[in-house]
Recover the amino acids of this structure.
């Protein structure tokens, strides 16, 4: 049904352009932009690599200070050179970008991109939640819907790559069994003909919804609906689930040893334990989601004790345990700053101020949407955080370089440096401002279309006779 | 959007909060004359005044201009480098409601009235103020084809419920179309039957039946009143029907309809029904496909109050586009941007700003979406929505252009009184922490005395698991 709808929309916009409204000037501009984009290889095209030179722009490498009047050269999907006085290679397609700004493409550190099209009422479009409590063998990239309308909508906001994850928040089935281990999150580019072409890192983190505690609220976990357990019962259930989690890691370690010794026969293979081996080896981080300071404490100590890497997904609760997070170097993917404060008596601006406060405490942060429908608010989250105390350059890093470091891809992504993947956005102003427009978008060195469902519907209905 | 909440507040902490925040309510010694000076004043209806002043007297705007001398005894607010604009009007809010937002048992619940359940101690009032909101249209949820009666309030934090009511504002009634009144996304509990209607066809039938009943009921009363006026004796008045009374008010133009809607077809349906029965739909709320039928909305004179960029959270929101507000404006509809949510209300200025990017609205058109336009939609534009002599002294003061992502509310003023002041809020925090700590200690001590040692007394779970205010407008789902 979804595919049919979009096909119909596309046919409509292929009709000859009718009379223009009084915004003709503006629209001419947009049309020229599309014409320009169409003249080059647009998405998705893993072949036909081109050489591009973006000239005269203000470049924000993020890894260093901004450079005025700089040139960025893109070759074979990578950044070949950046700086003032860099010469344009012969045959390069030149984008004259005087007055424009170039940033690394934004990295949304957690979404359900391609896994969740319409959240409510259309279960057939949702693959982001599975039955069962421990599903380490699930991998997000398996079910990326390539034609998801979210992808182009999010892309035009300047996001070029995202973590997409199963089981975020847990409790996908009526508050029943929580997904304590939700599965493996994948890092994907927002362009490509197949999930494999979109792939940057198939297994980038293991999603864990930390069990909720009595009186602690939180998501996932128990007691959603039906009779509420007593505080004591809930406490016991919490401890049992922590034990379960610990037990899974223990078994994975034994399994790893058995694998190492070559004593796992075909009939003894356990796919779930196999999936957890990279976690216990310290290669794959646990992305632990919780909204309770006590649970954060337990989770950090748990990972410390088990010697596994951890990324924390939380909101203002992090502020209550910032000393511990600093001590253990635990990075945080912030829950959306556009979230009502957690406690009745929290300061009104705590969600807006948390990024600045965590940064000041020396904690590495990244911004994430935790969903698809509001992913285009990612830069708004960062901008608001700057309004409430986060330095602007740190906000840019939290949108680019820091998440790349957290997921172990900073050698490939996160800044404009030679050798890195050319995921770039060219804007007409401050990336964080509400009215800044993305003029050009590169993913893996390819100039990528800015067209999307929303623009198409607008174009169609503004021409309604 | 993920709205994770933890619920471990106690009565004591709530009391501490109320006590502390009441400090922000107007003080008795506050002067009745205030001069805001050196500001960039966005009047909305009469352009922008650089280095301007606004004189406030007795809660009203006494003067606006560049050269206004401070009268003797006036309170001076030096707003150098700051921006003053009219207070934000949120045309769709669920804050300050005590208890359930939806009376979900019947599809025509017009007997229920928000005015009966206004909770002046809801902290979301203060949070809205921190986002510059001064007026809110408080509505029931969207579980009913014809929902409850609505109330426009001013966010006079610290005053009792009856003082929050916007004096003289016409009351409204919530209607709802589409998936929510169909209850198509709501679980049916074991043993229960599904509530009628379950289709958009049934929603139309429900509304037509209700207005058929209301017309007959009105005719009975009209007849009775006519005969009574002629002096006829021994008349028996018709039986009072509290469900139909508000619908009669709609037919008589004494009550506004605010109709939650998404799809183009259901918007047209209600416009047809309105024509058939001779009433007007004052506003379509959310109206996410309004851009498809903007001509029809403009022709009917109905306002449209929409979201900035929400989409895809259910099927009827799949064709939602962020260009909606701009496109409807271009076709002649009065458009506002609403929150439907206590958090969203904290940055409606930013949501309005997005109409510049999506559809090319001007700076002034964008701000109108959260000031004069919602005022027109609520019929209160003679009082609020712009900075003009004689209007209510309702303002919000920002440290940057209000359409910038970096803008931060410094003060929110209603009727000339400052109800939110960022500097005071910051200064108050240490005291609040101290008081909270002492209350927790006292509570723990009392708990220990009662039960013996152990435990963090009082930090118990909220058995409902849901705070139950905003964000719950359709009984467990967003809008």
């Amino acid at each position: 049904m979804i595919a049919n709808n979009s096909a119909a929309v596309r046919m409509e916009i292929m009709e000859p352009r009718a009379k223009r409204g009084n915004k003709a000037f503006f629209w001419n501009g947009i049309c020229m932009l599309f014409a320009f984009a169409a003249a080059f290889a647009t998405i998705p095209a893993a072949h036909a690599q081109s050489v591009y030179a973006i000239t005269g722009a203000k470049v924000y490498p993020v890894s260093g200070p901004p450079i005025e009047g700089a040139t960025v050269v893109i070759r074979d999907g990578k950044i070949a050179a950046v700086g003032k006085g860099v010469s344009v290679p012969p045959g390069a397609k030149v984008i004259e970008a005087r007055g424009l700004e170039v940033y690394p493409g934004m990295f949304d550190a957690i979404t359900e991109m391609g896994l969740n099209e319409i959240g409510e009422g259309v279960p057939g479009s949702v693959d982001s939640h599975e039955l069962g409590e421990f599903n380490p063998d699930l991998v997000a990239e398996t079910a990326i819907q390539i034609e998801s309308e979210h992808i182009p909508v999010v892309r035009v906001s300047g996001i070029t790559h995202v973590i997409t994850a199963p089981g975020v928040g847990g409790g996908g089935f009526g508050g029943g069994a929580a997904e304590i281990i939700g599965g493996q999150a994948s890092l994907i580019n927002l362009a490509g003909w197949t999930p494999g072409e979109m792939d940057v890192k198939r297994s980038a983190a293991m999603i864990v919804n930390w069990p909720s505690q009595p009186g602690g609220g939180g998501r996932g976990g128990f007691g959603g609906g039906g009779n509420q357990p007593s505080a004591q019962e809930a406490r016991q259930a919490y401890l049992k689930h922590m034990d379960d989690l610990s037990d899974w890691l223990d078994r994975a370690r034994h399994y790893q040893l058995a694998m190492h010794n070559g004593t796992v026969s075909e009939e003894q293979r356990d796919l779930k334990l196999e999936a957890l081996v990279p976690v216990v080896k310290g290669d794959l981080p646990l992305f632990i989601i919780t909204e309770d300071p006590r649970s954060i404490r337990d989770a950090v100590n748990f990972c410390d004790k088990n010697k596994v890497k951890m990324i924390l997904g939380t909101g203002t609760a992090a502020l209550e345990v910032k000393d511990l997070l600093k001590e253990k170097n635990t990075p945080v993917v912030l829950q959306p700053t556009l979230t009502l404060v957690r406690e009745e008596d929290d300061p009104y601006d705590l969600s807006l101020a948390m990024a600045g406060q965590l940064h000041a405490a020396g904690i590495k942060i990244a911004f994430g949407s935790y969903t698809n429908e509001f992913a285009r608010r990612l830069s708004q989250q960062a901008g608001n955080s700057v309004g409430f105390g986060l330095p602007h350059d740190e906000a840019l890093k939290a949108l680019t370089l820091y998440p790349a470091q957290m997921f172990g891809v900073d050698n490939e992504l996160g800044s404009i440096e030679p050798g890195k993947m050319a995921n770039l956005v060219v804007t007409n102003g401050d990336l964080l401002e509400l009215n800044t427009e993305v003029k050009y978008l590169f993913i893996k060195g390819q100039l990528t279309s800015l067209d999307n469902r929303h623009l198409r519907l607008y174009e169609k209905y503004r021409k309604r006779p | 959007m993920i709205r994770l909440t933890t619920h471990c507040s106690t009565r004591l902490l709530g009391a501490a909060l109320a006590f502390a925040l009441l400090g922000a309510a107007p003080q008795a010694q506050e002067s009745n004359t205030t001069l805001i000076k050196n500001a960039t004043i966005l009047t909305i209806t009469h352009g922008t005044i650089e280095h301007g002043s606004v004189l406030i007297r007795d809660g009203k705007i006494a003067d606006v201009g560049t050269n206004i001398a401070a009268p003797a005894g006036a309170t001076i607010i030096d707003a150098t480098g700051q921006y003053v604009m009219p207070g934000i009007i949120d045309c769709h809010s669920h804050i300050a409601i005590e208890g359930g937002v939806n009376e979900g048992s019947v599809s025509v619940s017009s007997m229920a009235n928000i005015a009966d359940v206004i909770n002046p101690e809801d902290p979301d009032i203060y949070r809205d103020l921190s986002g510059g909101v001064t007026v809110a249209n408080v509505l029931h949820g969207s579980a009913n084809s014809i929902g409850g009666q609505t109330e426009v309030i001013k966010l006079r934090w610290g005053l009792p419920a009856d003082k929050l009511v916007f004096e003289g504002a016409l009351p409204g009634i919530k209607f709802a179309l589409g998936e929510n009144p169909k209850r198509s996304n709501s679980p049916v509990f074991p043993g229960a039957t599904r509530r009628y209607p379950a289709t958009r066809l049934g929603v139309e039938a429900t509304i037509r039946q209700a207005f058929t009943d209301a017309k007959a009921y009105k005719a009975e009363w009209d007849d009775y009143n006519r005969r009574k006026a002629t002096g006829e004796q021994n008349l028996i008045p018709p039986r009072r029907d509290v469900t139909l009374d508000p619908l009669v008010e709609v037919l008589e133009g004494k009550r506004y309809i605010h109709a939650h809607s998404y799809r183009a077809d259901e918007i047209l349906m209600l416009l047809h029904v309105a024509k058939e029965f001779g009433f007007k739909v004052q506003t379509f709320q959310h109206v996410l496909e309004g851009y498809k039928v903007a001509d029809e909305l403009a022709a009917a004179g109905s306002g449209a109050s929409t979201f900035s960029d929400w989409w895809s959270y259910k099927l009827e929101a799949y064709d939602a586009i962020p260009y909606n507000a701009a496109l409807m404006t271009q076709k002649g509809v009065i458009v506002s941007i609403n929150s439907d949510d206590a958090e969203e209300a904290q940055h409606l200025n930013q949501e309005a700003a997005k109409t510049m990017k999506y559809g090319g609205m001007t700076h002034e058109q964008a701000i109108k979406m959260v000031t004069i336009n919602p005022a027109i939609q609520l019929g209160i534009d003679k009082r609020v929505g712009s900075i003009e002599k004689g209007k209510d002294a309702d303002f919000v003061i920002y440290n940057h252009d209000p359409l910038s992502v970096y803008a931060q509310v410094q003060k929110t003023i209603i009727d000339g009184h400052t109800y939110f002041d960022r500097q005071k809020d910051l200064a108050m925090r240490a005291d609040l922490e101290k008081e909270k700590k002492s209350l927790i200690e006292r509570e723990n001590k009392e708990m220990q005395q009662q039960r013996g040692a152990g435990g963090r007394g009082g930090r118990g779970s909220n058995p409902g698991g849901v705070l139950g205010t905003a964000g719950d407008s359709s009984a467990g789902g967003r809008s």
